[in-house]
Amino acid sequence: MEGNTFTIEEATVEEIHQAFSDNRLTARQLVDFYLNRIQTLNPVLRAVIEVNPDAIELADLADRKLKECRENGTGINELGELHGIPVLLKDTIGTNDKLNTTAGSYALMGSKVPRDAEVVEKLRKAGAIILGKSSLSEWYKFRSLSGVPDGWCARAGQGVNPYVHSGTPCGSSSGSAIAVSANMAAVSLGTETHSSIICPAGHNSVVGFKPTVGLTSRAGVIPMAPRWDSIGPICRSVSDAVCLLNVIAGLDPRDTATAEASKFIPEGGYKQFLNRNGLKGKRLGIVRHPFMENIQDSNESKAFDHHINRLRQEGAVIVDNLHLADIDTILEPNHSGEILVMMAEFKTSINSYLKELSNSPVSSLADIIAFNENNRELVGIPSSF
């Protein structure tokens, strides 16, 4: 935003709030913009599973509060860090509203969560507008360990990388990354057990990170492996990601892991540490093997090196060509024992989650498997894959 010029595309939370304060933008206009982008782009990108039917009503309510704020002479910060900001949620994060929470599967259509997930409660308290649910690799890509493409789920179809149509969007939080990358939402939330935020963030050229387990509550979120599960931001900028983390981090009695992690949240939050010159003097390690070996396109390789050089220009100290011991074992989850742990934890945790639902067509992992077996035409992977 320069001078009096403001465009919603690529706008940060701070810029949107400034436009609200200057009366150059309304929450309704913002939501209408994103709904139009979803209507236009989603048939191709498949990033959004559902749009919140109450999104416009919520935007109008946010505008009424903004008007009252201006009339009273108080600042927008009084209304909340994310007031009027549309947020997309990965379709594993429970919302006690008209939206479904299904992990991208038809097996959970019509299920009813007993309450909002804790992170959703925090978003609403901060004034955020829940815009809808984003697509993902179905069941965190744990429905099948092979044969299911990254970013594919029965309900949405195949998620598409907006920059490289034939390239992978990665997973499992693919829709959240695709959507913010293509300006279909202001910010989004994803979940990560094993690279499910950082991988789609990297492939779709946005900012995402996995908070320390327990820093953000998992209560009300469809579980994968609780010892590793975490909820985190996927945004277009570092500042937006930090703003989102500021809102969702914190203690929750319903998630015992937050009791210890919340002790390390800095007083005053994380935004105080934002620094435009933050890369200066920082040592950044680059591990090329084996991650760069699959890059066949010289343009992709040049783009990677371009970003490395940009980091150098910003003052970072690049430690290139690092080698990780036992990398092949680490990257082979069957050899490392990771898959065995995930299967055991998923079975017990998903059964516990299903029992808490107010209404659900399935009540156990066995029921989900039976649903898929009995509805192959409905839930099967397209033959093109």
Automatic annotation (TrEMBL):
<protein>
    <submittedName>
        <fullName>OLC1v1021341C2</fullName>
    </submittedName>
</protein>
<feature type="domain" description="Amidase">
    <location>
        <begin position="30"/>
        <end position="334"/>
    </location>
</feature>
<dbReference type="Pfam" id="PF01425">
    <property type="entry name" value="Amidase"/>
</dbReference>
<dbReference type="InterPro" id="IPR036928">
    <property type="entry name" value="AS_sf"/>
</dbReference>
<dbReference type="InterPro" id="IPR023631">
    <property type="entry name" value="Amidase_dom"/>
</dbReference>
